[in-house]
Amino acid sequence: MSYELVAGLETHIELSTKTKIFCNCTTEFGGEPNTHCCPICIGLPGTLPKLNKNVVKYAVKAGLATNCSIRNISKMDRKNYVYPDLPKAYQISQFDKPLCENGYISLSTGKNINITRIHIEEDAGKLVHQRGDTYIDYNRGGVPLVEIVTEPDFRSIDEVVEYIEKLRLIMKYIGVSDVKMQEGSLRCDVNISVRKYGDNDLGIRTEIKNMNSLSFIAKAMEYEFNRQIDIIENGGIIEQETRRYNSDLNITESMRKKEDADDYRYFRDPDLVTISIMDEQIQQIKNELPELPSVKLKRFVEDYNLPIQDAELLVKYKKVAEYFEEACIKIENHKVVSNFILSQIFRTLSTETEKEDFNILIPPSYLNELVKLTETKKINSSLARITLEKMLETGKPLSEFITEKHLQGIDENTLKSICEKAVLANEKAVNEYLNGKEKAFGSIIGYIMKETKGNADAALATEIIKTIIS
Amino acid sequence: MVTSKIRYINNLLNKKEISCTELTNKYLEKIQEENKNLNAYVKVTEEEALIVAKKVDEKISSKGHLMPLEGIPMTLKDNISTKNIETTCCSKILKGYVPIYDATVWETLKSQNAVLLGKSNMDEFAMGSSCETSCFGGALNPHNLKHVAGGSSGGVSSAVGGNIAVYGLGSDTGGSIRQPASFCGLVGLKPTYGAVSRYGLIAYASSFDQIGPIAHTVEDAAIIHDTISLYDKKDATSCANKGIMTADKLNDSIKGKKIGIAKEYFEGIRDDVKESILQAIKIYEDLGAEIIYFELPELKYSLSVYYILACAEASSNLGRYDGIRYGYKASHYNDLNEMICKTRSEGFGKEVKRRILLGTYVLSAGYYDAYYKKAQKLRGTLVRAFKNAFTKCDVILAPTVPMTAFELNFTSIDPVETYLTDICTVPVNIAGLPAVSIPCGFDSNGLPIGMQIIGNSFEEHKILNIAYQYEKQVGDKIYKNIELGVKL
Known about the structure:
The structure holds 2 protein chains of 2 kinds.
Chain A: E1 3-14, H1 53-65, E2 69-70, E3 73-74, E4 77-80, E5 90-93, E6 100-106, E7 112-122, E8 126-130, E9 133-137, E10 144-150, H2 157-173, E11 186-196, E12 206-211, H3 214-233, E13 241-246, E14 251-257, E15 267-268, E16 275-276, H4 279-288, H5 293-303, H6 308-316, H7 318-327, H8 334-347, H9 352-357, H10 364-375, H11 381-394, H12 404-408, H13 412-425, H14 427-434, H15 441-451, H16 458-469
Parallel strand pairs in A: 12-13
Antiparallel strand pairs in A: 1-10, 1-11, 2-6, 3-16, 4-5, 4-15, 6-7, 7-10, 8-9, 11-12, 13-14
Helix pairs in contact in A: 2-3, 5-6, 6-8, 7-10, 10-11, 13-15, 13-16
Chain B: H1 5-14, H2 20-38, E1 41-44, H3 46-62, E2 73-77, H4 104-111, E3 115-120, E4 140-141, E5 144-148, H5 154-161, E6 167-171, H6 178-183, E7 187-190, E8 211-215, H7 218-228, H8 246-249, E9 258-262, H9 271-286, E10 290-294, H10 302-317, H11 336-347, H12 350-363, H13 369-389, E11 395-399, H14 415-420, H15 426-431, E12 435-442, E13 448-455, H16 460-474, H17 476-479
Parallel strand pairs in B: 2-3, 2-6, 9-10, 9-11
Antiparallel strand pairs in B: 1-3, 4-5, 6-8, 7-8, 7-12, 11-13, 12-13
Helix pairs in contact in B: 2-3, 7-16, 10-12, 10-13
């Protein structure tokens, strides 16, 4: 029997406003425990929250970038539950009037994942377990979050992973979050159920809480998918419950059953006033939005004539995409620019963070000059490669490495005599090549390059050698 | 007759007839003697008071004319946060809690060199009508020690009435300023919701709570109100002051002013209380005011609406007292849950627990619509009913409490019976309106009777004007018990 996976996602993203959602403390990650705190964010008796307007603005941006409609009138509610990391014993969140609703994100297949709602809320503190004791760090308490809730539209783990990657990229592009999963600024709860193919009704779901790594999410979903199928195949019934992923054992474990679920006793927070946003304000925020990744991708493929895979890699890192566009000015073959970036430059950046930061020594204009020289055939590709390498190491411009002599190149007669010398010096390789070993040809060209310090036109040399030995 | 004790003392200080240090010491001495009986103060801040007094004396001797509240000895209800001074809400659960910040009202008064004599007694977390739910025991009525000073701001009314403070700030969620003022023969002003910052007021029911003065005279209340009703950016529900100084409006003529009487306010009121208010109506007629009679049937929902909504908010507001960060913590427990349960079981008193349970219940899934949601709707109905009433009249005159000060332990017998005594005060909190309670007579036992004048939003100047004109008219007949405080 074949089963279909059905999943929906709740994603919490920390917003990168300078200050917290209800006070003036910094939102900076880390810091000595309980140093980014004040009477308000540790909920001392008598303190009152005051909504940070930028949080609303950032959330509206997030909503607009994910095709949501924005509520003109909304409010904050209290979600009451007891946990030591929540110093007021309620989280200020939004219940029945979320700021943004009814959006979607399109996957590469063209399928839309529908977004039910996006609301704003405060993050809780963190429990730190040390030497058998538990300590509380409230630095994170009051950091603004958006919670983005989807419909149960996912049918595969790949779709979930793609959605999260797309969502991250959008949030990064519009600058509302650094979306660093390892720092917990993007965390996911996955609602997952299974059903037989062809069934229209949804199965009973479980919720896997609070995961902050794509690979954990994929593994947890896979485990949970199989666990649920096993239960059904063995005649059992899925229990609606909340589970957690245990990465050490690669399993999901029950946290609490539905009947133990908290009754959050939501009600409007009487300390905060109505949030009202005029249509003109929404329009203004819309106008401030940068080009979104999906639009950029389309443009890169169409305007720069790039293969989709290459375009995707460039668009994946906002700074790389910007660098690429600047390096492409007045260049015909943009693929050459893209190739230099994706192969040679990327090789110097080992981590995702390095690629995201894209702190390389040369400005895009240097790469632009270099590509122009190759386009006019003034230098060949291997010299270009060597030069770029030196530029990347030193940060110095082209003129430091490319001299007049290089630009003049080697005239055909000189090259001819070097080629003759090469054939004589590489008798073994020539024979191998003639016996059908194509690869052997490379070492002949290598010899020529060494002799000419990389200045020879490899295509021309190949042609000459082939004439000599045939 | 002196119409302002604050101005009287301010004048003495300015004229150097008494130094602020002498004045403060006299009050501190009197607290020493009287507080044993009254139990008005739960903490006396002698050291802090004398430091400020000295500062005031330096100012007088150097150049300065004093601001109205400068150097005046006063008290704060113990739910108003005071930096470095223990603030307990008179609950065991907050014993030992010392705030690290000042409430905005106290910051304002501090900047005017108000002399804080101490923190005063109150019902635990402001939940009660007699001050007897205080973990320190109740404050007593200076008119008769067998009676309570009222609640929840009973410590303030006891201290001011007993002349061991010139004035005090209380908080009024369902009558907690006006009722104790009425019980002790004082003036108590509950300002419009949003007129005075709530920042630093330890919350009972956030959409009802409001800080206001308890003082001897209307003019005193006006001076204090004018000082503390400021916009505060730390309180999202705070409103900009329209710039009307109520003290400047006290002498306006009330000829032709329309005073509304809603008959529902007089149902179930003790005869002598009713009689006193009828007398007051006559005085207003003599002063040229027009009396308008109408019905306000929506008032019958007030108590239910108030107790559902206030308890709901309280159940959430009081969730933070878990023993983890501050205040009382149970000493024996096996795990976190037990620690929190025991802390709350041992730390909260009976009335507070009752209201937390009630509030939790009305917000629970399955009951929310029947209670909380319905009460919210009725709150809207009441707001509209008052709005409509104020199209017919300038102010509404009503009793403050259906009776005079309870005998000790009256409230512990039947909580619902006690809730019913809030019938006249809670409507104003539901609608967010301003109201002032002023003395209007005495019962046969010599206990004061109070009446309240209710105004439209942000019309404190109107109610205080109308209150002041009455006070001026009856003068010493009712205000005979006002001494000038300590013998100067």
